[in-house]
Specification:
Length: 194
């Protein structure tokens, strides 16, 4: 596991107001711009990757930001548009990682056994904190429903931001959210959990 970016953003700052300065600094190659943008959105993107069941959410997050930072010249928009853009990049990275994992299924090493996969530090920590149950519940949803729930409920994105991130109309996001919440309520109710 690797960490490329680290940064913390003053929670009192308004990202919508300060984003243009962060973007200009990042485009100029200044570490402060990269760190500010990553500090603002990195934790959200990582939670999105965890919610999607990524084997290495930190790598997905870092790869998404590296891809975005390499293509900053192509980006045109405000803070909200950047948030949607980084979510789309992360989502594509998750799809690529899933496909790569599927290709590895059935591969064996020289001894004829399947190679061992070690649990990541995040997996071990989440298991210890009981987040495994939340991950299990999220896994019971469709990919589209899980994307919407993680964006809306876990990361607090607006309907419009979520629609941009998952590349669906707002009406579809509303339907997916309603179905996902209904499914989760039913699953919890069936298990007798209050």
């Amino acid at each position: 596991m690797r960490t490329i970016f680290r940064g913390a953003v003053n929670p009192d700052l308004n990202p919508a107001a300060t984003f243009p300065a962060w973007l200009a600094a990042a485009r100029a190659g200044e570490a402060s711009g990269f760190s500010a943008i990553y500090g603002w959105l990195g934790p959200e993107v990582k939670r999105f990757a965890v919610g999607r069941g990524a084997r290495d959410p930190e790598a997905i997050t870092n790869d998404a930001f590296v891809a975005a930072f390499r293509r900053l010249g192509d980006f045109d928009g405000d803070a909200s548009a950047f948030r949607s853009w980084i979510y789309a990049i992360a989502r594509n990275g998750l799809i690529d990682a899933y496909r790569a994992d599927q290709r590895r299924v059935g591969m064996t090493n020289d001894e004829g056994t399947e190679p061992a996969v070690e649990a990541s530090a995040e997996d071990l920590a989440l298991a210890g904190l009981g987040a495994g149950r939340a991950t299990e519940l999220l896994a019971s949803l469709t990919d589209a429903q899980r994307d919407v729930i993680v964006c809306r409920v876990v990361n607090g994105l607006t309907l419009e931001e979520t629609a941009d991130a998952v590349r669906r109309p707002v009406t579809a996001v509303k339907r997916l959210q309603a179905r996902a919440l209904s499914s989760l309520r039913q699953k919890i109710s069936d298990e007798g959990v209050s």
